[in-house]
Amino acid sequence: MDLAEALNLALNATSPFAIENFINGRFVPTERVIDSVDPSTGQVWAHVPDSDAVQVNQAVEAADKAFKSWSQTSVQYRSTILNKIADIVEANLSAFAAIESKDQGKPVNLAKVIDVPRCVHNFRFFATAILHDTNESVMQQEPVTALNYVVKQPIGVAGLISPWNLPLYLLSFKIAPALAAGNTVVAKPSEFTSVTAWLLAYVFQEAGVPEGVVNIVFGNGPRAGEPLVLHPRVPIVSFTGSTLIGRRIAEITAPLNKKLSLEMGGKNPCIVFESADVDKAMPTIIKSCFSNQGEICLCTSRLFVHKNIFDEFAKKFSLAANALKVGAPQDDVDLGAVVSEQHYRKITSYIGIARDIGATFLCGERSLHLSNGNKSGFFVQPTAVTNISDDSRLMQEEIFGPVICVLPFETEDEVITRANNVIYGLSASVWSNDVSQVHRVAQKLQAGTVWCNCWLVRELNMPFGGTKASGVGRESAKDSIEFFTEKKTVIDGHMQMVRCEIVTTTTTSTTTRGGATISAVHRCAIERRPAVGSCPSAQPAV
């Protein structure tokens, strides 16, 4: 089966179909499978491999074997491969978007403008970034003259674990820099949203990625994820997911001295000051709360509004949220289904907590009207509550759904303290027409990213990551390449070994000092200035 046939199967399947692990350039079935459920219908639509340590080890062995040759390829070659991957995904954008929507529950229109284009951009971005990556160098003068420079070398097999909320978007954001830097990969996508990762394997084949360079093993955390991060030939692990699992990875890998990047949970505040233009800000604030059913780690979860505009804001927020359409992801809707029944029960349990503690609902208590085919799906309407305390579970715990807490504040110092009063520190947003205030507050918020009068805008050269319980490490052009490489410092002491006199020989001649052979061009360059401690009569050339 090729990519076109696999896409056709996923797009037109009338009964559940089986996907397979991708190991050493081949698709490999497993005996055990996990049912993958279409969140919008509640029906099984695919069977995902339930891999264990045996399959993980096969994938790691293939990646380890391929590393020797892949790590020696030129950056130009790797850039070409990444661009081919991007071109193939882009050529099939609509198909990938439709399948991503069915697998995850998000509106297909969102997948068309966010998920799949960002996947394409991730591969193209790192295809270019690796061509322009630079290394540090310095000419040392004391106590001797020596050239010091840094080389970045690929590390080996990268274990990549990606989440279910933005499957293609975030998996590609790990695979692209890992490959660009010269590593090989064993990826484990979420067992809830595996189909587009399986299709991506066909893209790798079509793009000419050598066998063993990328391997994809499907399964759950305990059976597949844990053997991957513990494998002795996986020296580097990049994880995006919950804080609970991220902490578990950090704990079990601590004795193994692995290089870790952990992008974990968030409880992101949005602060709306009195000077903010509420009408102008409202569409973006609504998106920050409810995009992708609130299943984005960067979505707003706590909304602080200055008390002088709170009533006006709450009314407009409620109207805007109630106007959002919830329904079948393939239709023209704003919110689709949340990813699974398990997650649906988690989200609705927090809505139940809000009722139990007497919270006031600004929106979210109307009945949903769904078509017959979607009545067994996992749909949650946009919900916002107020009149709760800052120490309530709704304000402290990550819900990861379309449930927002909206509370008033009085002073700048007060709201900064309250915004920081959680274990998380992934992102925050600030709305104010006072430029000084915006940047003053941004400096004081404990978050890896702070948006000022905007949301979900970032140039990929800028670092991304969290503070506190939201993560360890940063991702960007520079940060990702540095994470997926090991820095080595090289010191060249030729400068202190060459003779002091000015040399005027031809470019083909060589001189040997201390066993080192130096070309005349290099020698002339370094002999323009004598090494520290050399003959005091030597003079620099003019």
Strand count: 25
Q: Low-confidence segments, ≥5 residues, pLDDT <50?
A: 499-542
Main pleated-sheet profile: 7 strands, mixed
CATH architecture descriptor of the largest domain? 3-Layer(aba) Sandwich
Count of structural domains: 3
* Span between termini: 69 Å
In helices, the fraction of residues equals: 25-40%
CATH superfamily of the largest domain: Aldehyde Dehydrogenase, Chain A, domain 1
CATH class of the largest domain: Alpha Beta
Radius of gyration, in angstroms, nearest whole number: 27 Å
Classify the beta-strand content into a percent band: 15-25%
In CATH terms, what is the fold-level topology of the largest domain? Answer: Aldehyde Dehydrogenase, Chain A, domain 1
Mean pLDDT: 92
> Structural class of the secondary elements?
alpha/beta
Oligomerization state? single chain
- Order of adjacent strands in the largest pleated sheet: 15-16-17-14-13-19-20
Domain Aldehyde dehydrogenase: 32-490
Family: Belongs to the aldehyde dehydrogenase family.
Organism: Plectus sambesii
Pfam families: Aldedh (PF00171)
Give a written overview of the molecule.
- The chain is an alpha/beta fold.
- The protein folds into three domains: 3-264 and 478-487, Aldehyde Dehydrogenase, Chain A, domain 1, CATH 3.40.605; 268-457, 3-Layer(aba) Sandwich (Aldehyde Dehydrogenase, Chain A, domain 2), CATH 3.40.309; 502-542, no CATH class.
- 38% of the residues lie in helices and 21% in strands.
- It is built from 17 helices and 25 strands.
- The protein has a seven-stranded mixed beta sheet, with helices on both faces.
- The radius of gyration is 27 Å and the shape is globular.
- Residues 499-542 have low confidence and may be disordered.
- InterPro entries: Ald_DH/histidinol_DH, Ald_DH_C, Ald_DH_CS_CYS, Ald_DH_CS_GLU, Ald_DH_N, Aldehyde_DH_dom.
